[in-house]
Amino acid sequence: MNIVYTDNNATTKVSPEVLEEMMPYFSELYGNPSSMHSFGGNVGGKIQEARERVARLINANPSEIVFTSCGTESDNAAIMAALELNPAKKHIITSAVEHPAIKNLCSYLERKGYHITFVSVDREGHLDTELIYEIIEKKADDIAVISLMWANNETGVIFPVEEVARKAAEKGILFHTDAVQAVGKIPIDVKAADIAMLSLSGHKIHAPKGIGALYVRQGIKFPPFLKGGHQEKGRRAGTENTASIIGLGKASELAKAHLNEMDTRIRGLRDYLEAELLAKIPASSVNGDKKNRLPNTLSIGFDAVEGESILLLMDQSGICASSGSACTSGSLDPSHVLMAMKVPFESAHGTIRFSLSTYNTKEEMSYIIEAMPPIIKRLRDISPFWKK
Amino acid sequence: MWEYNDKVKDHFLNPRNAGEMKDADAVGETGSLSCGDALKLFLKINKSGRIVDASFMTFGCASAVASSSALTEIVKGMTLDDAEKLTNDDIADYLGGLPKEKMHCSVMGQDALRKAIRSYKGIEILAKPGNTICECFGVTDLEIIETVKQNNLKSAEDVTFYVKAGGGCGKCVEKIEEIVESILAQA
Ligand SMILES: Cc1ncc(COP(=O)(O)O)c(C=O)c1O
What we know:
Chain A is built from 12 helices and 13 strands. Chain A is α/β, with parallel strands linked by helices.
């Protein structure tokens, strides 16, 4: 059976071009970039090239890029650095719909005595920026960091990160954004937005898993999260994951080249999938602001059926996606993102997230559009909550 | 990923006795939309108190559908007295076992069956006995105690797997731990 992969917000395939560029650094070019000999030094040169490529994707200077082991590490490193730079400030502002990498870190810090504001979102997933500006006006001096995701992994809804970042900068507040889902899907310009720190992750943009980067604006005296050797100019210790860094560099170059295709062809495929599913399946609804959304993401709820069952039947047809339901995550409540948006239980439990990449085709969308209505019908036929 | 065995998968993909029964003699309902799973069980019962037919409608994950399907197969032909003694373990065993986190699906089956039989016998079903411990899933202390004893549960996490209590906001986990510990201390 052919696999139709529409779970790219979970992870992506490594591009063949990326893999090819990485291969020599697993075998013959195994030198340590820190070594004095040119055998290792040449690898250092290749890492510098990767740094430049990542920087170009987000309009940063190469020296502002710190390589890390994943998006989660970038998020942790950013928040912990902000706290260390502002030891007297005890307030963190974030949103109620962050990825666990930020959400659970902030909950941990709350238990350690920090004051965290988890800013709420409305039914469409829009952030309550007024609340943030009010707090900034009144108590700027106590805020160690504001951390907001650029785009939501479940719904694709985009936060007005640039606007908040500028207001934070005006007040001298450090601003971090978890841009793991936004990078490579929409244009990002850290300079224009005056962002202090930005997290990105390789495996969401066709680089391998286990490689990430943190942008740290020039001038910030960044204390390292991993302490040890002098790698990454003392901002992240540990011998470099050379092959993966080089892969992330290549993937960043490709992602930049594909931004236009994301905005046009992939957006078109997503819109086609969305329109057809809504038309063919009664009592279905899109979660999140349809306009202000990543071009590749569709979060769609089907009333009166449950996500795990839907996914399992989709799996029988070779379609890979994710659900917003409890049963697949180990927790029992629907996703905290859908709950924060007050999506009714009726559709939250039956929410499926499709997330596309530039590898998807129109034929694949047509296949999903054919496969989904009978799957939903089959489950509704045995659901006590389905009113025909 | 799914950790379901072939029998569970089979009962999910090819559910037995799925659908509404218009002329049912007894109906038992449990669960709710907000809980994420619910089961409506229909029984046809003859004059001598034997279940001659059963069907179900279920909203929930694959193991909820499979547990419901298994339940209807098990109870067909049983006397009401025997059926009343059926436990969640019997349902899980029939399916060759369920993942631990999914045991609540089999508990749902036991619950719906008992409700159906009690309503048939004209026994009034009171509001849930005991004091509510878990607000998210509406689970009482008496239910927790019964489940812990019946299944030899050892931790609050076990309780969550079996009756969901503690699996929502998590505020009641400490209370559940206390209940489990007091039962373990008695044993
Ligand atoms: C918004 C967001 N932040 C952070 C992460 C974590 O990234 P990683 O898996 O590289 O640690 C993810 C990935 O799931 C994500 O979607």
